[in-house]
Write a structure and sequence with these properties.
The complex is a heterodimer. Chain A is mostly beta strands. Chain A contains 2 helices and 8 strands; from the N terminus they run H-H-E-E-E-E-E-E-E-E. Chain A has a single domain, classed as Beta Barrel (OB fold (Dihydrolipoamide Acetyltransferase, E2P)), CATH 2.40.50. In chain A, the strands form 2 sheets. In chain A, strands 6-5-4-7-8 form a 5-stranded antiparallel β-sheet. In chain A, strands 2-1-3 form a 3-stranded antiparallel β-sheet. Chain B is of the alpha/beta class. The chains are: A mainly beta, B alpha/beta. At the A-B interface, strand 4, strand 5 and strand 6 of A face helix 5, helix 6 and strand 5 of B.
């Protein structure tokens, strides 16, 4: 099923969501009609790469395919533009993963489709030192 | 079309359990036959099957025609209705709308889920399909993970303690002791919840509803259909509504605001012409302890931030003014996902017709059921009244 991720690789690689050209509201994942003003005038937009942890969890029983990483932190990050992203937190000391912590986006291997399948890359976030 | 009243005229269900000897069809048929035998002169005009993942759980789709055929009901329109964990109450709501409008006079609603044929990881994967493949499943998040994120936010922002969060699971398990169809019939303590294994910090195993197989069925009639069910005890469906929210919990402006439940409850109560003070019991969708608490807040029974605290203070116990999850709720009766909403409705029927046995809420006149798909992404709320 890697193709469904490959299809939107640009969204994963550059955090591309949507922006309303009428009122400026930005969303990630993208929306196709503005949630704020109802406009249909929506364009793709690159999201800011920094934000803060709104809440986090340490996942002990992950989805199949992610067992080797468990337990690992997941967070909802509020980006500088107000959009929110669900993401893994990587390369950050355990005690640094806290509500309010400043984070920045990075590109990492996200999914491996078996021994001979495609390797899919995507965004993860790191706590700013 | 003439609008009439709508009633639940009969119910049937299996025990929620690991039904190794039963297929998904066996379970659906067992529950349906029990419900149909309660109204022997009635033949339902349409069938609605509430089910989430028969394809993943039992390699089976086309559930509507399959169940209709097995029940000798071939010929009638039959549909599967899917809205993740709220599939059961969504199926009921579609049937209710048709019966209430007078478009049809009777309907059979069967909620069913076969979960335990799958390995636990495969169950996680099947449940996660209720969430975005590209943005939730992609990052390795399970359903429990989303609820863990929500629980931490709830505890930090509303200053909720571990013991307060445990209060609803404790009530559920106490209520399930006398419930013969419940999956887990042992009382627990807050210490047991706090010591159980970590699933998605801060959520532990006993914050989470279990995995089980089950089916529940109800027969719906309107005033015309009721003439074929004269001897049956009836509970009126006084109101019902399905509502949806922004798809994923992380897309919402305030994660603690369960807008789908709020809107569905408001509209269902308006249809019923009822003020919340008149409600005698509530069956709440506590797939996770935090979801039960936020649901009670969204319906206005608790103030914002007070759901778990009120539960701890005794507001929702079996002898309180507003008993919650009178047969154990999702946590202890069990949560065979597509069946859960129909179990809740069947339980409300038992309460309002005086057939709840050791779980009877004395003098119950009005009951509310709230069934949720996703993290309050779809909410289906129904209000029931005991018929004279």
């Amino acid at each position: 099923m890697a193709i469904q991720y490959w299809r939107i690789r640009d969204r994963y690689y550059r955090l591309i969501g949507s922006r309303c050209t009428k009122c400026g509201a930005e969303s990630f994942p993208p929306v196709y009609r503005c949630r704020k003003c109802g406009s249909y005038e929506i364009k793709d937009a690159e999201m800011p790469k920094t934000g803060r942890i709104l809440t986090y969890t340490i996942l002990h029983e992950p989805m199949p395919g992610f067992e080797a990483q468990a337990p690992f932190p997941l967070a909802i990050v509020k980006l500088a533009n107000g959009a929110t992203v669900l993401t893994q937190i990587v390369d950050s000391p355990e005690e640094s993963v806290k509500t309010g912590a400043k984070v920045r986006a990075t590109l990492r291997r996200a999914k491996v489709d078996g021994d001979s399948g495609q390797i899919v890359y995507g965004y993860k976030f790191i706590v700013e030192p | 079309m003439a609008r009439t009243k709508a009633y639940v005229a009969s119910v049937g269900f299996t025990k929620v359990a690991e039904h190794w000897e039963s297929s998904i069809l066996d379970l659906a048929v067992e529950a349906a036959l029990k419900a149909l035998k309660g109204v022997p002169k009635l033949s339902p005009q349409q069938l609605f099957v509430g089910n989430m993942f028969s394809s993943a759980g039992a390699s089976q789709e086309h559930m509507g025609a399959l169940v209709a055929s097995a029940l000798g009901l071939e010929g009638i329109p039959a549909f599967k209705v899917e809205s993740a964990c709220s599939s059961g109450a969504s199926a009921f709501n579609v049937a209710y709308s048709l019966v209430k409008s007078g478009a049809i006079d009777s309907a059979l609603v069967v909620g069913v889920e076969k979960m335990r044929d799958l390995e636990p990881e495969a169950v996680s994967q099947a449940l996660a399909m209720a969430e975005s493949a590209e943005y939730t499943q992609f990052v390795g998040a399970t359903f429990a993970a989303l609820n863990g994120l929500l629980a931490r936010h709830y505890m930090e922002r509303m200053d909720v303690t571990r013991d307060e969060l445990s209060a609803l699971p404790v009530i559920d398990h106490a209520n399930a002791v006398a419930a013969e169809h419940a999956q887990f019939r042992r009382a627990i303590t807050p210490e047991i919840v706090a010591r159980s294994g970590m699933v998605a910090d801060p959520l532990r195993l006993f914050d989470c509803a279990p995995v089980g197989d089950g089916a529940a069925a109800v027969v719906l009639v309107n005033d015309s259909g009721a003439s074929h069910a004269r001897k049956a005890k009836m509970a009126e469906v006084a109101g019902g509504r399905v509502s949806t929210a922004r798809f994923s919990v992380y897309e919402r402006e305030d994660m603690l605001d369960f807008t789908a439940t709020k809107a569905a409850f408001r509209e269902a109560m308006k249809q019923a012409g009822l003020s919340p003070q008149k409600v005698d019991f509530v069956e709440v969708h506590d797939a996770f302890s935090v979801v039960g608490a936020l649901s009670l807040e969204a319906m206005g029974f608790s103030k914002k931030g007070m759901g778990s605290k009120d539960a701890k203070a005794g507001k929702y116990g079996p002898k309180s003014d507003l008993p919650v999850n009178t047969f154990g709720g999702l946590k202890a009766r069990g949560h065979p996902v597509g069946a859960t909403g129909v179990y809740q409705i069947a339980e409300a029927y038992l309460q309002l017709t005086g057939q709840a046995g050791g779980n009877q809420v004395e003098g119950a006149e009005y009951g509310v059921t709230q069934n949720v798909g996703g993290v309050d992404t779809t909410a289906a709320v129904h209000v029931f009244r005991g018929a004279e």
